[in-house]
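Ticket closed. Logging final result for Proton-conducting transporter membrane subunit.
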Amino acid sequence: MSDANLLQLSLLLPLLALVGIQFTARRENLREAVSLVAASALFVVVAQLYQPLLAGQTIAVHWIDVLPGLALAFRVEPLGLMFALVASFLWIVTTLYAIGYMRGHGERNQTRFFSLFALSIAAVMGIAFAENLFTLFVFYEILTLCTYPLVTHAGTDKARQGGRVYLSILLGTSVGFFLLAIVATWLLAGTLSFQPGGIFSPETSVALLSVLLVLFVFGVGKAAIMPFHRWLPAAMVAPTPVSALLHAVAVVKAGVFVLLKVCLLIFGIDTLKSIPATEWLLYLAGASILLASIVALRQQNLKKRLAYSTVSQLGYITLGALLATSAGMTGSALHIVMHAFGKITLFFCAGAILVAAHKTEVGELRGLGRQMPVTMTAFFVASLCIIGIPPTGGTWSKWYLMLGTFEAEQWILMALLMVSSLLSIAYLLPIPLRAFFSRNPDLQNTPTSDGATVIKEAPLPSLIALGVTAAGCIYLLLFPNAFYQLIKAGI
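Final structure:
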């Protein structure tokens, strides 16, 4: 099969999975097998694009001209392939996790869930391989619309309220800022195609470029930069597999990926450095990192604590892109990968705790490590990845982000990153440590005949999934080169 056909297949496979899921709706084992096979096939297809791209081959397809110069078209470029590899692999493990969670928690409308999940991945592939801003915007909006029913999956008043916040902020920022930025880019540059080094001529007014950069940063609401972050905690009413989708596989990663791609391939590093607005947007990203970390520290609900942690960590990626240095861009791109594995593991663990122990509050988790040793060990490993210390891959992204602040001589931001990492330690590490080393008299432990505590973990599919992603956090410390090569080829 040609590389161009592989690209088209990567866009169509999730849609074929959607059809298969609908046809097998009444046979749940077959329905879930369709999801797993499609997810695995997608990862294999995307992986086959890796070597041809690094060998310098151009892989592109053109679907339709909507208007002269405005096309629905796709091209494989290094950062897009990196994003697609992460999303397609995590679709496999999230599907596996969801099988255990949805059955164990007795969730209704499971066919609708798996169908919309497949549709969301189709939108992600469109975003990852978009050749231009128009194509990217179309799939960006599709992703918003097809994840909304997942957020409101429970059907309760609280779920519907969370969904309204989710939809209003994401659509509001898209239409009010992002679409306006795209139109202005077309008028200023005469093209919307992504190009290495950017698309604006040196004669373009820096004042106009400043306004444009602000519109892009605020318009990509999925990046959850403050003050447009409230949709993320509000969406935590969704089932845990949806939270994993939002935080690691699709939505927030799509947002920061779009920002990184815009900074690198629409503005370019040299242009970014010359724009006055870049400086204060850097400090806005820094404030988002710090404030969200402080709010996370105060949250007692586990999923909300993880949600505000995500807001903070997304600020790292935005900050790295806006530093406009090679190390900053590298750290930003690496953090998309490292945060994906770390945060999806944390949400997997939160869902496992809910299913097996019916606990949702941080204070209820003392002593839980005796009942759920695998889950809490995975939580500990993922926490280290988010903090950015060995033996996890988060070490590399935080290292390059620190180098980026050094290259840009942004000493205040360097100090802020250090403080934020200390806050990450404060709101994450006590959870697994207390689970293992504290006793909770309110926790009903049923002893065996020899006095040992009964192990009561989540269903096996969920346990396997969180074990795989936790192992991925460690693997990425030892073998980051596959992603590093892609990133260096794209910067």
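The radius of gyration is 22 Å. No further action required.
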